[in-house]
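Reply to dn_fold:

You asked what the input looked like. This is it:
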Amino acid sequence: MNSKLKTKYVYFSVFIISLILTSCSSVYMPNVPNSPMLSAKNEIHASGHISLRGKLSFNTAYAVSDHIGVLFNGSFINQSQRKKDFNQELVELGGGYYTTFGTDNNRILEIYGGFGRGTTNRIYRTYDNDLLVFTDNQNVRFNKSFIQVNYSSKEKKSLTLFSKKYPLNYGTIIRLSHVNMSNFTRNNLAQPLEDNIFIEPVFFTRLKLNQNFQLQYTSGSNFGLKNRDFMTAGSSVFTLGLIVNLGGK
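and this is what came back:
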């Protein structure tokens, strides 16, 4: 096999391997669902979360009445590595219903829906003896719609640290998201568009520092209902966050 033919064979093999590898992960990485735990009119919620992969999520909410709340969420990640870059931006707007119940009104049920838009840029690089031989540049614009149900309990237990008790809040979120591409190019060539429906269960625990500030640990995952090559499931949610609630009961 002459050197030119061998080089073409290597490049073709690299291209095929890159196709296989890049179809194994998703161009959609879920953000942290908004869980404001609203309880009364004019209550304000704001939170910031960071994941193990460096994704930042910012959620806000406002109670426009004793049972209606509006949401605004944003998230982004800018992850650069030698063989892979992953950048994503997402904004969401929504609203819905909330109510408190229980003996001390310490349980909260929230039902929200909304929509969002986002962009993803993903770059894969393949090297041969430290020489860059192939780059796969993927650019995606997508739309998102979602509906979620939040159930949470306030201060049912507490954690003792340094002889001081910190109340704990617990919550569960089930979010159903439909994400569909509006544009998809790969190395500047148009690609077939994909969509998927994701079931995203999330669980969180909040440690109450004082009347307005809490720390939150969030864990969850997502499951896709459709078999797709790029808009796939599998991205877990593990984050730490700071919560601010002003007003409310």
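The longest helix spans residues 3-22.
Hope that clears it up.
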